[in-house]
Design goal:
With about 120 residues, the chain is mainly beta. The protein has no helices and 10 strands. A 6-stranded mixed sheet has the order 2-10-9-4-5-6, with no helix packed on it. A 4-stranded antiparallel sheet has the order 1-3-8-7, with no helix packed on it. Strand 7 and strand 8 form a beta hairpin. The protein is globular and about 45 Å long.
């Protein structure tokens, strides 16, 4: 099994920055794709950013130019640098991905809360 632990959330004012981390552990041969999602109460989980094994990244329109996803495979950790945060970025942030030659997902972690308010 693959386990995911998100960290780095907190409360910031609009315009502030946070860096989220996602630590991957367990039965891992390869981390093919890593993704960051976010969810607010009553809404579906939203895909925010994706990074491939080769380092290519894609972003939701709402965060493009403000968020940057990166990965450190030696540490089995994926990051989400969030700059110029807005109140609408407030959510619980989760990571997941596609692992091993089966390209399966892990179970969801606890997530990390990000709150942006003045």
């Amino acid at each position: 099994q693959v386990q995911l632990v998100e960290s780095g959330g907190g409360s910031v004012q609009p315009g502030g920055s946070l860096r989220l981390s996602c630590a991957v552990s367990g039965n891992i041969d390869s981390i093919n794709v890593m993704e960051w999602y976010r969810q607010t109460p009553g809404k579906e989980r939203e895909l925010v950013a994706v990074i491939t094994l080769g380092g290519s990244s894609t972003y939701a329109n709402s965060v493009r130019g403000r968020f940057t996803i990166s990965r450190d495979d030696a540490k089995k950790t994926t990051y989400l640098q969030m700059n110029n945060l807005k109140p609408e970025d407030t959510a619980v942030y989760f990571c997941n991905g596609r692992f091993n030659n089966t390209w399966t997902r892990a179970g969801w972690g606890q997530g990390t809360q990000v709150t942006v308010s003045s």
